[in-house]
Amino acid sequence: MSSSTTPTTPPIPENGTVPPRPVPQAQRRPREYLPPKEVERLIALGRKNALFAGSDSGARTWAILASLINTAKLNDLDPQTYLADVLERMISGRTPVNRLDELLAWNWKAARDALATAAA
After folding, report:
1. Which of 35, 42, 62, 109 is least enclosed, having the fewest CB within 10 Å?
2. Among candidates 76, 69, 79, which has minimal Cα distance to 43?
3. pLDDT by residue (tens digit) across 73-106?
4. Are residue 90 and residue 102 in the same domain, yes or no?
């Protein structure tokens, strides 16, 4: 058996603690089953991180991005895919100003699902 196919174990740090193993995707809990305390902890952590935005305009930018990312997550969307598509549509002019409501996460998801079912 070659060494590239053999599973390797991570080295144990000098302090003797073993790093936690990553949880396989199939064993992770879906996002909608997060207990309320966990959601509150995540929000508080984001709030703490925002303290280091650097300036008022940086904090505003941070708040806008955090809002967009969390809205995408709450609508079961991949934030990176959603934001990349929305920003591309806005910059390229494919979506006119009077139709920006189509780019809201829930409308975007419904349109994406409709395209997927039409293609199938």
Report:
1. 35
2. 69
3. 889 999 999 999 999 999 999 999 999 999 999 9
4. yes
